[in-house]
Each structure stands twice: as C-alpha cells, then as structure tokens.
Design brief:
By secondary structure, the protein is α+β, with helices and mostly antiparallel strands. The radius of gyration is 13 Å and the shape is globular. The mean pLDDT is 95.
Length: 99
C-alpha cells in the first residue's frame, strides 16, 4: 500500500520568498524548516519558516505531481492558492505539528 503525502508552502516572515515542498511527514518536515536543520538549504538561506499552505494527497505520486505543478506556476498563482486556504497568511504549524 502506497503512503500518501502533503504538498506545502513555506514563506519568509515578510512574505517575500516562497518555498514549495512535498513530504509524507509534514509535522517533522516543517519543524526541520523552522529549526533550519539543513543550514545550507534554500529555505534556511531565505528564512522560509512560516507554513502558509498545505494539502494532503492519498498517494505520494499525486503529491509530487502537485508540487511540480505549483513550482511551475507564477508567484501570483501561488498567492491565489495560499489565499484560498489562508487569506491572512497565518503560520499553520500548530494545526499540523503532531501529524
């Protein structure tokens, strides 16, 4: 049985930089971003520590396809996606930290 996955978007505190990722364990992965577990990564370099969007997919392959679709889109399309779920761009970490 294939494991599902999440697509997520992190942003910097001033919302200037967006990072899109995919994971099967969103709580642990977002915690890694917040703690800058990989100090040389894009998200650490640009301080993308605020979770502003996430979506569950039944299979990891669907999640990866959605991640690629989002990454291939414009910033405006990413903003529309974020606003559809989180119009105030609140940090959603508390909602998922135990997932």
């Amino acid at each position: 049985m294939e494991k599902g996955g999440y697509v997520y978007i992190m942003c910097s505190m001033n919302h200037s930089t967006l990072y899109t990722g995919v994971t099967s364990g969103i709580g642990a992965r977002v915690r890694q971003h917040k703690e800058k577990f990989y100090p040389n990564s894009f998200s650490a370099k640009y301080n993308c520590i605020k979770l502003v969007y996430y979506k569950w997919f039944d299979t990891i392959m669907e999640a990866i396809a959605e991640e690629k679709r989002i990454k291939g889109g414009s910033r405006k399309k990413k903003e529309i996606l974020i606003n559809s779920m989180n119009p105030e761009w609140n940090d959603l970490y508390e909602q998922i930290r135990l997932l």
